[in-house]
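call fold(seq) -> tokens
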Amino acid sequence: MAAEETIYLRKMTYEDTDNIVRWRNSELVRPRFIYQKLFTRTSHENWIKSMVETGKVVQMIICTVKENRPVGSVYIRDIDPENKKGEYGIFIGEADALGKGYGTGAARLMIKYAFEELKLHRLFLRVFADNEAAIKSYEKAGFEKEAYLKDDVCVNGEFRDIILMAIINRGEV
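ret:
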């Protein structure tokens, strides 16, 4: 069974705030993000008001079909309608949901959404160069490596390499 058959995406709501804050602040998720400041209920609600409700971001919750349980989130941020592109991001927040293909499945669903609903031409992402599991998942979903950026970001006083990956809408999705 394909991962896309075991999960579904639904629009994030204010009711998801507690899960988002818990997930993003967890040691499972936070160290894998470029932005590592702690989330609060207020900061997340401000994100919804200033980014999601204005259309600059589309954010979904990844839910399991069988248990109807939220396990993570996926989003497209900095949506640029003029250049028809946006930045992809994802996190699986529940430890028992890792390694089940949910990330790859959610990426495929979000790529389809980006190209068919948002009419984007390009979807890109940034990932720490040493996050091999994420890179492998992104490649399975169709993203390709485009650039290796040496010492691109400074996280906790340490410069980190970033890999830039993207997928182009060639009308095949």
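The helical segments are 3-6, 17-25, 41-52, 102-116, 132-141.
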